Amino acid sequence: MHKEAQLEEEMKARDAKPQEWKSAYNKYMTQKAVQDWRAGEKETYIVQPKEKTPWQKALDWIDNHQAEIALAIGIAVGVGAVLLTGGLALPALAVIAGAVALAGGTVAVGTVALNVHYDRQWNENLVRNIAIAGIAAGAVTGVGLLYNAVAMKGMAFCAANPATCGFAAPALKIVDAAEGLWLNAKLAYQTWQGDGAAAAETALDLHSEYTDGGMPGNSVIKELRDQFAELSQNAVYLIKNYGRNVIPLLLRHGDEALDIIRTYGNDGIALLQNYGGDAVDLIRHHGGDAVQILQTYGRDAIPILKAHGNDAIRVIALYKDEGVDFLRRAGTLGIDPTDVLDNPPLPNQTLEGWTLGIENPENPVNHPLVKLNLTEAELNNILTQSIKNPDSKVVVLGYGRDIIKPYYSLGDEINGSYLSLSPDEWAPFENAKANFWMDVNAPFIETAIENRKIFLFNVNKNTIIDPLNAGRFSLPELKLIELPSNDYVRVEFGQYDLFVPQELQESYLEYLSPSLLGE
Questions:
Q1: 312 closest CA partner among 298, 330, 295, 299
Q2: Positive or negative CA dihedral for 438, 439, 444, 447?
Q3: How far is CA 415 from CA 114, 293, 409, 515, in A?
Q4: Disulfide check for 137: which of 78, 254, 381, 488 has CB 3.0–4.6 Å away?
């Protein structure tokens, strides 16, 4: 029995080992399955790279083609320089230098911006790109200007010497034959390369070359030929009489330039040279009136005529220099200047008095303007020197006499801005108070309005508009500020009056001196 029991125990032990191995194996497979599941779960939540936006892709493309883009910008600037200066008498070196500077500057800004965007050194590729753009712009501009100069001289010579140019026919035929050979070779190469679009364009040029009757230079001077085709025998006459300086004007403005020069002669040439397309447009619509006004008032008249047309011509005809200044300021002051044609000023009332609604002839704005021996620069200097505390947000106006605290004393007390002229500065205006208003006082007020400053009068409005005080400058100052287009609000402030920009009604007290607030 003992042996049998021992044998039975051994058999049980043997049966147990496989079961323990199986349990361990099952435990391992379970853990592995869990690990595999967790790994799969992590893969599921891995953030995939976000697809780039079209803008980002565009930036990447630009960044990868910096040299090509710099070259394209240089070429474009060069072409633009040649086209824009075609009718202007500018030094060639100045035009080339300007084109190089513009192209280089444009590319420099773009290169630095790309480097900042991609977190690179700010000057990476900078010198290379500037050099590419600058060289391209300079080369294209130089070649274009040379081409224009040669073409114009050739046209001028042939216009004056048509018989001489006729002897050039044999040489031109050789050029024509050479050009035909070049186009044939170019077409064959493009066809071999499979460049269908370019081959089609060359085929058209070749067809034009074969049907031109032996005229050379089709593909080389096609653009110039098209321009010259419009010039008649009248153009030849103009070139003979006014010289070759008219050629770029004729090429740029065509028949309209021809008509202007034929009608107005040297005056027309000067206007075309000085004002270009603006002169063409204005003379087309207004004829001799535009010529006269442009000659008298120059470039300042261009926006006036464009904005108001025939009404401007009528106003200028009636009011001369005063009319020009009235038209120039009318838009800024929110006034329709054509109203003055239907409702003209009263006798002894100027356009400025009409604008501000001041009828009393005693007021300075209704005095006649006087011719002063002061240049515009000198007037601007007087204005600049006479403004005290120019950076102050508060402008002090009002009376300088017959009052307890003159405006200049109040201005010093609150550190406000005000006008104060020395005796030498005031001397030219002693007998020209209308000029003082137009050249100094009104510009001072208008600039303050533009900068949305607060106005403080040392006297109230009722006193200012009293007819007994009609001769003072405070009345036009008040009327100018109160024009509806300026959007100011009156605030009674004890013995003073404030005029506050509409947008500062809730915060204007922040800008006032503590002494005004009684602190």
A1: 330
A2: positive
A3: 48, 45, 10, 10
A4: 78
User: How far is it, in rounded angstroms, from Cα 192 to Cα 454?
Assistant: 77
- Give the separation between CA 287 and CA 147, rounded to whole angstroms: 34
pLDDT at 47 over 60: no
* C-alpha–C-alpha distance, residues 460 and 496, integer Å: 5
Which tens digit of pLDDT belongs to each residue from 61-88? Answer: 888 888 889 888 988 888 888 777 655 5
**Contact call for residues 440 and 326 (beta carbons, < 8 A):** no
Cα-trace Rg, the chain? 41
Average pLDDT of the chain, as a whole number: 81
What does each C-alpha distance from 382 to 153, 241, 399, 403, 419 come to in angstroms? Answer: 50, 48, 21, 26, 10
Q: Which strands form 488-493's sheet, in the order they lie side by side?
A: 394-397, 454-457, 496-501, 488-493
* Neighbouring-strand partners of residue 492: 497
| Residue 499 near residue 491 (C-beta atoms within 8 A) | yes
For the segment 439-483, what is each residue's pLDDT rounded down to a tens digit? 999 999 999 999 999 999 999 999 999 999 989 999 999 999 999
Q: How far, in Å, CA of 211 to CA of 200, rounded?
A: 17
Separation of CA 345 from chain center: 37
